[in-house]
Every structure is written in structure tokens, then in C-alpha cells.
């Protein structure tokens, strides 16, 4: 099978998520159409962690994080050209969209290109953070994107519930990691007790709650 992944924030957890899919589906060919957030991590550095025998990369130059209609139109047209070219040469069996920006532009581009087998994984519902106006806008964009088709696959039960609460049907496949990649180490029982968090400390991780838990054990 030829799987096309479309991702705008090709960095951090989403890059790890896609790498897990690539490593778990070794018999398939993966084409990753990606943007870049150089302030987080450069694409070249991320690519080094991917197997090279079943993965191909295509740079999505116009992709960017913020909602800017003119730049987003340019990104949509570039993505549409890429998808039409891949479809022409029979390089697409299914398209997997990662994150909200890729999910919105990707579903529009897939519909315009006549691609019907589409999966969208939000990796964090965008309408759960920000001001009330921002949440309303993101809910509206998610509903518009859903009208263009594609199966929404959430990575946690709570995320699935949030999508269903705004009238978007979704299924859930729990996120996870390959534990065999990490060596077990003996626990030092004499070490000081520590409460830690992994990943970037941003709004989605609810740092306020983390601080409350940590302060409870002081």
C-alpha cells in the first residue's frame, strides 16, 4: 500500500507519531508531504530518525501555522498540485492527514483531486484552547473540513468525546510508544522523589494542573 502523510508541523510529538506508523507498517510505502517549523527542529534532523527504505519526503513549502487566508490559499494550491501529480502516477492508496491545519487544507485538496480514502488525526483538538472567539472559529473550521469527507481518528477517548460533542463522528485508536526501544533501568530507591513532565510545556499539557500536583507533594 502507498500511504501519503500530510503534516504541517513536522516536529516534536507529531513527527514521533508518524515515525511510529512508518516503523509499524514496514511493508508499505510512505510518502510524507511536510512543512517545517525550524524554530522547533529542522526537517533534516527529523528525517535522520526515519527508515530510508520505505519513506520518501516532499517539502510543502507554503505550509505555515497561522491562519492567513492568502498564504493558506497558496498552501492549498501547492498541496493540490502535489496530490494530483502523485495520483497521476498511481502513488496514492490512502491519505493520512496530521494536525488541524493539514486536516483542513488536506481534506479540501483531496476532494478537489478526487481522492476518497482519507484519514484525519487531529493529535489534539484545536477548539479546546484559546479565547471563546478562537474556539468558535476552530469548531467552525473543523465542521467545514468534516463536510469534505475523511474519517476522523482520535488518539484518545477524551478527544473523541470532544469531537462527538460538536457533531463530528470519530473513532479512537489510542496513542502509544514502542517500549522495546527503551532499555529498562533499575530504580534507585534512595534518590529524591521527583515529579516530571515530558514534552513541551504548552497549553495542551495543562501546566497549571501539573503545578498543582507537584505542589501537593512539597
Account of the 3D structure:
There is one protein chain. With 218 residues, the protein is an alpha/beta fold. It contains 7 helices and 7 strands; from the N terminus they run βαβαβαβαβαβαβα. It has a 7-stranded parallel sheet with strand order 3-2-1-4-5-6-7, with helices on both faces. The mean pLDDT is 89.
Residues in β-strands, percent: 5-15%
Distance between the termini: 53 Å
Residue share in helices?
Answer: 25-40%
Spatial strand sequence of the major β-sheet: 3-2-1-4-5-6-7
What gyration radius follows from the Cα positions, in whole Å? Answer: 19 Å
Kindly state the mean pLDDT as a whole number? 89
H/E element sequence: EHEHEHEHEHEHEH
* Low-pLDDT ranges: none
Extended strand count: 7
Number of helical segments with 4 or more residues: 7
Secondary structural class: alpha/beta
Write a concise keyword list for the protein shown above.
single chain; 218 residues; alpha/beta; seven-stranded parallel sheet; globular
SSE blueprint:
Blueprint: E1 2-7, H1 12-24, E2 29-34, H2 43-47, E3 55-59, H3 69-88, E4 94-98, H4 100-113, E5 118-121, H5 132-147, E6 151-154, H6 157-165, E7 171-172, H7 207-216
Helix pairs in contact: 3-4, 4-5
Task: Sum this structure up briefly.
The protein has 218 residues and is an alpha/beta fold. It has helices at 12-24, 43-47, 69-88, 100-113, 132-147, 157-165, 207-216, and strands spanning 2-7, 29-34, 55-59, 94-98, 118-121, 151-154, 171-172. It starts with a strand and ends with a helix.
Amino acid at each position: 500500500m502507498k500511504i501519503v502523510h500530510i503534516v504541517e508541523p513536522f516536529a516534536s510529538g507529531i513527527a514521533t507519531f508518524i515515525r511510529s506508523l512508518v516503523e509499524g507498517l514496514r511493508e508499505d510505502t510512505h510518502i510524507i508531504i511536510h512543512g517545517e517549523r525550524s524554530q522547533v527542529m529542522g526537517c533534516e534532523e527529523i528525517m535522520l530518525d526515519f527508515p530510508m527504505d520505505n519513506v520518501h519526503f516532499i517539502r510543502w513549502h507554503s505550509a505555515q501555522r497561522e491562519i492567513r487566508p492568502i498564504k493558506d490559499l497558496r498552501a492549498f494550491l501547492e498541496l493540490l498540485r502535489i496530490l494530483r501529480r502523485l495520483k497521476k502516477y498511481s502513488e496514492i492508496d490512502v491519505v493520512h492527514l496530521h494536525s488541524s491545519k493539514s486536516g483542513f487544507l488536506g481534506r479540501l485538496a483531496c476532494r478537489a483531486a478526487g481522492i476518497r480514502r482519507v484519514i484525519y488525526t487531529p493529535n489534539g483538538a484545536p477548539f479546546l484552547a484559546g479565547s471563546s472567539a478562537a474556539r468558535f472559529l476552530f469548531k467552525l473550521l473543523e465542521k467545514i473540513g468534516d463536510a469534505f469527507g475523511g474519517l476522523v481518528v482520535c488518539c484518545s477517548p477524551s478527544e473523541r468525546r470532544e469531537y462527538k460533542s460538536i457533531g463530528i463522528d470519530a473513532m479512537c485508536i489510542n496513542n502509544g510508544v514502542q517500549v522495546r526501544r527503551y532499555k529498562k533501568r533499575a530504580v534507585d530507591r534512595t534518590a529524591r522523589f521527583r515529579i516530571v513532565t515530558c514534552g513541551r510545556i504548552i497549553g495542551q499539557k495543562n501546566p497549571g494542573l501539573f503545578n498543582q500536583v507537584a505542589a501537593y507533594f512539597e
